[in-house]
Specification:
Length: about 190
């Protein structure tokens, strides 16, 4: 279960993503305005790391950007640092590209293996917690072959998801969102 705080973020998630995208080799250069399409969350079993994957539109392309949010820098992960943001409730957050964060990789692998889904999200309000409907719904495929229980599978994020794209393995994470009713591959275990 993810608890969403009503907070001010500086920069916003979209601004942070937009500033980071041009330097990514899979992005292909300068990103236009980043428009959020939807997002889904996983839970860190230890409750320390926020795990949220964003689908954004930039320059007519749909991009998949998994992020992790940490209360302190991740050791030896500077190459994966997207940036920092100030969260009005939680303070400074170090934001990392998900594939570079072991908490993201482990949780994605678990969701795929166990045919699990995104977590339920709750927003803190003055009247208590209210459930928020997900804007992206995801599901793991389950352990589809004998190698599915490998301790450290390679996690592959599909950075530009699109209908009809297939993965080289049956161990996938697929998603749907507004306007996309047929499941699309978002990640897989190699």
């Amino acid at each position: 279960m993810a608890i969403i705080h009503r907070a001010t973020l500086v920069p916003t998630k979209a601004e942070l993503i937009a500033a980071w995208l041009p330097a990514q080799p899979w992005c292909g250069g300068a990103a236009a305005e980043v428009v959020p399409v939807g997002a889904y969350r996983f839970d860190d079993p230890e409750g320390e790391v926020g795990i949220e994957s964003h689908l954004v539109e930039a320059g007519g392309r749909l991009l998949h950007v998994p992020l992790t949010y940490r209360g302190a820098p991740l050791p030896d992960a500077e190459e994966w640092l997207v940036g920092t943001m100030e969260h009005s409730v939680l303070g400074t957050r170090w934001v990392y590209d998900g594939p570079g964060d072991p908490v993201y990789r482990d949780e994605l692998a678990r969701v795929v293996r166990e045919a699990d889904t995104q977590v339920r999200m709750w927003v803190e309000t003055p009247d208590g917690r209210e459930e928020r409907e997900p804007t992206v719904r995801v599901r793991g495929s389950g352990a589809a072959d004998a190698d599915a229980t490998d301790a450290t599978p390679e996690v592959v994020v599909v950075r530009e998801p699109r209908p009809g794209l297939t993965a080289p393995t049956a161990r996938t994470l697929v998603g749907t969102w507004a306007g996309q009713d047929e499941p699309v591959v978002l990640a897989y275990l190699a």
